[in-house]
Amino acid sequence: MAQISARTAKWAKWAVVPAALLVSGLAVSQASYSAFSDKTVDAGNNWAAGTVKLVNNAGSAVFTATNLKPGQNGAKCITVSSTGSLASTVKLYAKDFNTTPAVTNDLSPYIDLIITEGTGAAANCSDFAVLSPTPATPSTITLAAFDAKKTFSDGVGIWAPASATSAAPATRTYKIDYTLRNNVPDSAQGGTANVVFTWEAQNS
């Protein structure tokens, strides 16, 4: 039998390494393409918030009453429109009227308000009609007590407009009656009072 020299055996040993690497590479290559694949995606996703929005037809102070005397009264109507895209609940409450000079001989405890929700849109109340069935309003309250209602949760009213658009807004008319009480004291002569009527909508 022929004898393999030590030198030949050494070369044979190193020759096995490339062959092993080649076999390993082929195995990896075959494994890399051993499964089919596919994928699908949906269209772009986006989110947009809805809106709650109120406007009124007054544009300025609802009341500017001067030189009042005991027993004197008056009324105004104001139409509020909702153009928000979300259903909401609307409440009426008060905000302070920033004025100089400050209120003197405060009349607010002696002025009675009646706030009524109704239908119609005339600013002079000519077509005002109380909602049927009559809602929780009319609310009779002194101006002082109403002025203490400073937040939505304290507000008066039951209007809950559904979603609407600027082209077809939901509307509600509010009639506000006031009367200076007959028993107003002499100390209130020359007295003043003021308030900002605030309608707020919160989505429901």
Structure commentary:
With 204 residues, this protein is an alpha+beta fold. It folds into two domains: 1-33; 54-203, no CATH class. The chain has two helices and eight strands. Strands 1, 2, 4, 5, 6 and 7 form a six-stranded antiparallel sheet that branches. A two-stranded antiparallel sheet has the order 3-8.
Short note summarizing the structure:
The protein is of the alpha+beta class. It contains two helices and eight strands, in the order αββββββαββ.
Topology:
Blueprint: H1 6-32, E1 54-56, E2 73-82, E3 88-95, E4 111-119, E5 129-130, E6 139-142, H2 143-147, E7 170-180, E8 196-203
Antiparallel strand pairs: 1-2, 2-7, 3-8, 4-5, 4-6, 4-7
Please, what is the average pLDDT? 75
Give the end-to-end Cα distance, rounded to a whole number of Å: 100 Å
User: In angstroms, what is the radius of gyration?
Assistant: 40 Å
DSSP summary, beta strand count: 8
Characterize the largest beta sheet: strand count, sense, and whether it forms a barrel. Answer: 6 strands, antiparallel
Order of helices and strands: HEEEEEEHEE
Q: What share of the residues lie within helices?
A: 10-25%
Structural class by SSE content: alpha+beta
Shape: elongated
Q: How many individual helices?
A: 2
Proportion of residues in extended strands: 25-35%
Uncertain runs are none
Integer count of domains: 2
